[in-house]
Automatic annotation (TrEMBL):
Gene source species: Octactis speculum
InterPro entries in the record: MGDG_epimerase (IPR053354)
Name of this chain's protein: Uncharacterized protein
Native organism taxonomy: Eukaryota, Sar, Stramenopiles, Ochrophyta, Dictyochophyceae
Organism domain of life: Eukaryota
Length: 108
């Protein structure tokens, strides 16, 4: 299957078909984290699309509960959401980064 929302699209030679989550993602420029699909390759692909202007939506994210110690860790020492947050922080420090990771109250 297609793990990243914005990629759940195909072309059959005549028509373009897109899953509802792809339409939402393309319209809002947000890829939601799906914990069932989480893997190193999923994280890497989320980062790839974040660099292309797609925010990473994390339903229920409470930044107050994020341990600030992760920001002192190296990128390869963390994984999952922590890896995305460390990269976001690094990008923000470098150039007021465009990767945005936020609680995303997703609706239709």
């Amino acid at each position: 299957g297609f793990d990243v929302d914005s990629c759940a699209v195909c072309f059959d030679g005549t028509r373009v078909h897109a899953a509802a989550r792809a339409v939402r993602s393309l319209n809002r420029r947000v890829n939601l984290i799906d914990l069932d699909r989480r893997s190193y390759t999923f994280e890497t692909r989320l980062l790839k699309y974040a660099q292309r202007g797609f925010a990473v939506g994390v339903p229920g994210l409470d930044r107050e509960r994020v341990d600030p110690a992760i920001f002192n860790m190296k990128f390869n020492e963390v994984n999952g959401l922590a890896r995305l947050l460390v990269l976001e922080n690094k990008l923000r420090l470098q150039r007021d980064g465009k990767l945005a990771i936020d609680d995303y109250a997703h609706g239709p």
